[in-house]
Amino acid sequence: MPVSPNQGSTGGGDAVTLTGSNFTGTTSVRYGPREATSFTVVSDTTTNTITPSGQGPVPVLVTTPGGTGNVGTFFYLPPPSFRLVPPPAGPLGGGNTVILTGRGLYTTSEVRFGSQLALFTVDSDGQLTVVVPAAALAGPVGISVTTRGGVASGVIYTYLDSPSLTVVTLDSGPVDGNNLVVITGTAFSYTTSVTFNGIPAISYRVASDTEIDAVVPAGVIGPADVSITTLGGTTTALDAYTYLGRFAVLGGASVTNTGLTLVTGDLGVSPGVSITGFPPGQVNGTIHNSDGDAVAAHADLVTTYNNLVGLTPDAIITGDLGGLTLFPGIYNAASSIAISGVLTLDAQGDRNAEWIFQIGSTLTTATASQVLLINGATARNVFWLIGSSATLGTDTDFAGRILAQTSITVTAGVTVSGQTLAIDGSVTLDTNEITRPW
């Protein structure tokens, strides 16, 4: 090619080699109307030049003592321009593909992300497909594109750390889902999915780089993995959330009621088949008489009881818990426990705080006693594991999930924010309010 390269920037400054004959004694090289910035006669057939600024296609003219000749045509190219098709971010390790669109990209010779060279394909004068290179540190970098028309920059790409998940609050809820939880962690800004055991959240909102608010999908009773996927990667927290049964009352042999008891949540019996007193009692939920749901709930009750009763205790308790303030932990009593007055459970600001009471024999509450939850404590995270039977005295205000090996007697005027679940025996109710705590 007599003019090589035959394309360059409108701003000039490109090195161009002219190939021809009779260059000895050259006195002038012009690109259209303008003198070359400089030229050097290498031989009678070769001259090296630096282009002046210019526009469009122009003739390249060489003047010697023998006259002026047209060596060829040089094409001034406008500087490129481009934008990054979203998303404008990705993982530190790179390897993802992005699209740059604009104009003047056909002669692209180099694409950089910060100082890192990227592999690219020229799709057309208006598009490049680019494989993002890896980076050492998270954060924004500039993208630059070099063509024969010049260099374009000013577009930002952000390298992202992989996300991390610290905690889900509240970390348990109903098996039918539809409850709101707060997920705390890091690097959440470019979240693309939130799943519970692989099931997408009903909806989610990225509140900040460290918080996602999600509506939990329906699931299966038991622990669930929670996964967050962002443009920077995926993190999975194993067993970070627990799906809980929907039953407020479950008897092993029977459920009996006297008076205007109100149950919010499902009520059932299994393996027994006797449910009496509804009406006059009311159930804001479904009654399950040894059906498939009741059978599954009973099996889950047995499993949960055995798992929790086998945990290593943090502290030993005895006698009457009335008047005490207890912080989260696993508490073990070899025999019977009573509650007279007020037992206070203090979560100290942790809404996932749990109390597990392993009671070897019976639990009995006195008239008008109370389990008081403060500083973020929730009834769903209080477990009463009763080795034989529980009796809640008249007008008791009780909180937590009672899992009794034998029976549960709820006397007149008692309110329960929680569950009354008996493995082998009966649940006996008398003008009560029992509300499943979620």
Characteristics of this structure?
56% strand, 50 strands, twelve-stranded parallel β-sheet, eight-stranded parallel β-sheet, 1 helix, 438 residues, mainly beta
Q: Shape, please?
A: rod-shaped
Computed Rg: 38 Å
Report the β-strand fraction as a percent range.
over 45%
What is the helix tally? Answer: 1
Short description:
The chain is built from one helix and 50 strands. The strands form nine sheets. Strands 28, 30, 31, 33, 34, 35, 38, 41, 44, 46, 48 and 50 form a twelve-stranded parallel β-sheet that branches. The N and C termini lie far apart (79 Å).
General description of the model:
- With 438 residues, the protein is mainly β.
- 4% of the residues lie in helices and 56% in strands.
- The protein is built from 1 helix and 50 strands.
- The strands form 9 sheets. Strands 28, 30, 31, 33, 34, 35, 38, 41, 44, 46, 48 and 50 form a 12-stranded parallel β-sheet that branches. Strands 32-29-49-47-45-42-39-36 form an 8-stranded parallel β-sheet, with no helix packed on it. A 5-stranded mixed β-sheet has the order 2-9-8-4-5, with no helix packed on it.
- The chain is rod-shaped and about 120 Å long.
- The mean pLDDT is 96.
What's the arrangement of secondary structure elements?
Blueprint: E1 3-4, E2 7-9, E3 15-19, E4 28-31, E5 34-35, E6 38-43, E7 46-50, E8 57-64, E9 67-77, E10 81-84, E11 89-91, E12 97-103, E13 110-113, E14 116-117, E15 119-124, E16 127-131, E17 139-147, E18 150-160, E19 164-169, E20 172-174, E21 180-186, E22 191-196, E23 199-200, E24 203-208, E25 211-215, E26 222-230, E27 233-244, E28 247-251, E29 254-258, E30 262-264, E31 266-269, E32 274-276, E33 282-284, E34 287-289, H1 292-309, E35 315-316, E36 319-320, E37 325-326, E38 329-333, E39 337-339, E40 342-346, E41 355-359, E42 363-365, E43 370-374, E44 382-386, E45 390-392, E46 397-404, E47 408-410, E48 415-422, E49 426-430, E50 433-435
Parallel strand pairs: 2-9, 11-18, 20-27, 28-31, 28-48, 29-32, 29-49, 30-33, 30-50, 31-34, 35-38, 36-39, 37-40, 38-41, 39-42, 40-43, 41-44, 42-45, 44-46, 45-47, 46-48, 47-49, 48-50
Antiparallel strand pairs: 1-3, 3-7, 4-5, 4-8, 6-7, 8-9, 10-12, 12-16, 13-14, 13-17, 15-16, 17-18, 19-21, 21-25, 22-23, 22-26, 24-25, 26-27
